[in-house]
Design a protein that fits this description.
The complex is a heterodimer of chains A (166) and B (274). Chain A has 166 residues and is mainly α. Chain A has one domain. Chain A contains six helices and no strands. The longest helix of chain A is centred in the C-terminal third of the chain and has 25 residues. The mean pLDDT of chain B is 86. Among the domains of chain B are: 56 residues, no CATH class; 78 residues, Thrombin, subunit H. Chain B has three helices and twelve strands, in the order H-H-H-E-E-E-E-E-E-E-E-E-E-E-E. Chain B starts with 11 loop residues before the first helix and ends with a strand. Classes of the chains: A mainly alpha (166), B alpha+beta (274).
Chain lengths: 166, 274
């Protein structure tokens, strides 16, 4: 593999493009009954990239992506930035273990990470008197995120390997 | 191997970085929520998300165009005929309305009331809904470039739909009248009783009529229209129909449920009132 100079910035566009796809999946219209089950695409993609390339995608990139999401879905400015930075932090401290895990273990870790993501944003929304869920349905998307994780993982890994993103 | 420092991420500094970012986010949220300092920043930042909105709208507009191209002649003729018929019926009804509104104008002039202003409406298309299922908010394809402003009333063909709560250059967010953060000043069409209807939490599109006493003259089926108080919505637009009234002796007020007349979960074509 040709090494050194261009190595650091190689394939940045793949990472950015993947997050644009995640943003599209986020705003993609769904039937109302399926709205609760929408996986947290941005957080899933973030977990993958942090796990695969922890030296490139870290806290700051997570925070900036979060601000972008806040503007995109017109939520409280800084809300997604905070929770995504938190997810990135946890993923950064777990990435060596995550790489060794079986798919089932990975998916359950993802379940916990996304659940925390949901819980923290729920707390913040409640404190700031925004609209919140009257029940625990907001945790359902953690489950669907864990279910879709294998697809995200293998899909992004295939993309990363075939486009030599390092 | 050329990887040197990046084999493992030093985790000792990460905690401090997280703390710093969390603090900055908290400050941002506080400023955004309490003072609205960031309106301008959000407006300029929304240029960055405009392509995403455009891309997400693209399949919808493309499929609409394709189905227009492949429409059969018979189908078009039939639709044309049906449309002509409804147009005729509505023109017939409009004749009466012309007469009534002229009479109304004369009467209010007699009473020295202010003139009834004709509203200008502009058509807008619904692009997408808020991804968060707990917020009843939709995105429409008109923004400041088309003169949309914050607080602007939005209608559909059947009644009041919501109001613009945040504007972007080419898109804007509309909060539905059934959102739990939204209240609409209304009037009972039958007898002029004024009240406020408030949206509810959960994904159902229903509203509650607040603070109605047990003796208030309201019945199931009463039509509620905007009262014009609060100076947000022009008077006289349909808001909803009372669908149930529950008298509970243990409660100080009656529980009145209101069904919105606007097709909040299916309307694509909306009207912006200027």
């Amino acid at each position: 593999m040709p090494a050194s100079v261009s190595r650091h910035s190689q394939g940045l566009w793949v990472i950015i493009a993947s997050f644009i796809v995640a943003a599209l999946l986020l705003v993609m219209p769904l039937p109302e009954s399926l709205d609760y089950y929408r996986p947290e695409w941005i957080a899933l993609f973030l977990i993958y990239w942090v796990m695969a390339l922890p030296h490139r995608v870290g806290l700051l990139s997570a925070w900036i992506i979060g601000l972008f999401v806040d503007v995109l879905e017109d939520s409280l400015l800084g809300l997604n930035a905070l929770v995504l930075a938190l997810v990135a932090y946890l993923a950064l401290s777990l990435y060596r273990r995550l790489r060794m895990f079986t798919m089932l273990q990975q998916a359950s870790t993802v379940f916990i990470l996304i659940g925390l993501h949901q819980l923290v944003s729920f707390w913040i929304l409640t404190v700031s008197e925004q609209n919140t869920s009257p029940n625990l349905m907001f945790l359902v998307s953690a489950f669907s995120s864990a279910l879709i994780w294998p697809l995200v993982f293998y899909g992004l890994r295939y993309l990363r390997r075939s486009l030599h993103v390092v | 191997m050329t990887i040197n420092k990046s084999l493992f991420i030093q985790s000792s500094t990460q905690g401090y970085r997280l703390l710093a970012l969390v603090l900055v986010s908290l400050i941002l949220m506080f400023a955004d929520n309490r003072f609205g300092y960031l309106q301008q920043a959000r407006y300029y930042a929304s240029y960055a998300v405009t392509p995403i909105h455009w891309l997400s709208e693209f399949p919808q507009s493309l499929s609409a165009q394709i189905s227009d191209v492949f429409r059969s002649r018979d189908e078009l003729l039939r639709e044309n005929e049906a449309l002509r018929e409804t147009l005729l019926m509505q023109q017939y009804q409009l004749q009466k309305i012309d007469h009534l509104s002229a009479e109304n104008q004369r009467l209010s002039e007699l009473l020295n009331a202010s003139a009834i202003v004709e509203d200008i409406v502009v058509r807008a298309q619904l692009v997408s809904e808020a991804p968060d299922p707990f917020r009843k908010q939709v995105l429409i394809n008109k923004g400041t470039a088309h003169g949309v402003y914050e607080g602007q009333p939005v209608l559909d063909a059947d009644g009041l739909f919501g109001q613009v709560i945040s504007v972007e250059p080419y898109y804007s967010w509309v909060q539905l009248i059934t959102d739990s953060q939204h209240s609409t000043p209304i009037q009972v069409n039958r007898n002029g009783i004024r009240a406020v209807v408030t949206g509810t939490q959960g994904s159902q599109h229903v509203m509650m009529m607040m603070n109605m006493t047990d003796t208030a003259d309201i019945v199931v089926g009463d039509i509620l229209v905007t009262s014009g108080l609060g100076q947000r919505f022009p008077a006289g637009y349909r808001v909803g129909v009372i669908s149930s009234i529950v008298h509970d002796p243990g409660q100080p007020f009656v529980t009145v449920t209101v069904e919105p007349t606007a097709q909040l979960d299916s309307s694509r074509n909306l009207l912006l009132v200027f």
